[in-house]
Write a structure and sequence with these properties.
The chain is α/β, with parallel strands linked by helices and about 325 residues long. The chain has helices spanning about 20-30, 40-45, 50-55, 60-75, 115-125, 155-160, 175-190, 215-220, 250-260, 270-285, 300-325, and strands spanning about 1-5, 5-10, 75-80, 85-90, 90-100, 135-140, 145-150, 195-200, 225-230, 235-240, 240-245, 265, 285-295, 295-300. A hairpin with a 2-residue loop joins strand 1 and strand 2.
Length: about 325
């Protein structure tokens, strides 16, 4: 659709018909009138011009105007019925999710693995941000780009739905926070968005040292990438009591967030995790105002009806002219 002074054309290509139409009109105007010989010219000279003679040009003019209006109707002019100004966001966000075997535990919600809880909450986060480009990176010992930055929510959600944890004690099992964060930074490196964000969730300590988390955090800072870190707390039962599993991961994640200007969050259950992502959603809002039309009204009848009227008048004039000539 092409906006024209507050209006929109649904099928603007039909306007190309104006080119041969105008060309035909020009040729008709240049066509010579039948010539009269000198005797006939002298014979008719001085006689009053009849109504038929004076109006001979009208049928052609009316037909041309009707043709122009018909072309305009075919282009399907539309007018927005309701105009609304909507604040939207344009942010590039890479979601980084831990898929090490420890995410198969059920500390966030009884009977449901942590990875499934996280996938459900992240899906809600994705659905709430229709105007942003989102990407998905998973990691255990090594990172994997599940989905590059995209506006295609359905594609991203399908990829998220298919995410699984790596097998326990496999070569891939581990927690490589540094390499995962570095991978996310690479995905945002060429982004021209004013705001670039990484949301990294893990439940364990970094035990892969190909890229140290501090180095990856410094890289993000240099590229203007803000990193929000989320620690999914792991719990253990000891002496009939539920205790937090000892870890130093929270301090590492806190330092990553501080370095990049982000926030650190802890989540010990599903509700806390959902509130965490809701808070990140509220934090990462860069408003811009867009004008949207919620509905459109077809305006072609305003062109079609006058065109039909002009054609009817053109036929009437030709009929009257023919009858006058016959009489």
């Amino acid at each position: 659709m092409i906006p024209l002074s507050g209006m929109t054309l649904g099928d603007p290509l039909f306007l190309l018909l104006l080119v041969p139409l105008v060309g035909g009109i020009v040729l008709l105007l240049r066509r010579r009138r039948p010539a009269l010989d000198a005797g006939s010219d002298r014979l008719l000279d001085g006689l009053p011009a009849s109504w038929r003679t004076r109006s001979a040009f009208l049928p052609g003019v009316l037909a041309a105007l009707a043709a122009v209006l018909l072309v305009g109707a075919l282009a399907r002019p539309l007018q927005g019925r309701e105009e609304s100004r909507v604040l939207t966001e344009g942010i590039d966000i890479v979601l980084v999710v831990d898929t090490s075997s420890s995410m198969l535990d059920s500390s966030l919600q009884k009977g449901v693995t942590n990875v499934e809880v996280v996938k459900a909450v992240v899906a809600e986060f994705v659905a709430a941000r229709p105007d942003d480009r989102l990407g998905l990176v998973t990691f255990a010992a090594y990172p994997r780009t599940e989905c590059p930055l995209t506006l295609d929510r359905d594609s991203l959600l399908e990829r998220l739905k298919a995410v699984k944890c790596v097998p326990r004690n496999s070569d891939e099992d581990g927690t490589g926070i540094g390499v995962a964060l570095g991978q996310a930074a690479r995905k945002l490196k060429d982004s021209d968005a004013k705001s670039k964000v990484v949301v990294l969730l893990t439940d364990g300590e970094n035990n892969q040292h190909v890229v140290e988390p501090a180095e990856a955090a410094a890289l993000c800072k240099d590229q203007g990438i803000k990193v929000h870190t989320v620690f999914a707390e792991r719990r253990m039962v000891m002496g009939g009591r539920v205790l937090l599993a000892p870890t130093q991961a929270d301090e590492l994640l806190r330092q990553i967030a501080v370095t990049t200007g982000g926030r650190f969050f802890r989540a010990g259950d599903t509700n806390a995790l959902r509130e965490t992502y809701a808070e990140i959603d509220r934090l990462e809002r860069t408003p811009r105002e867009d004008v949207r039309y919620t509905d459109y009204e077809d305006l072609y009848p305003w062109l079609l009806v006058p065109a039909a009227a002009l054609l009817a008048l053109e036929l009437l004039l030709r009929r009257v002219s023919h009858l006058e000539f016959a009489s």
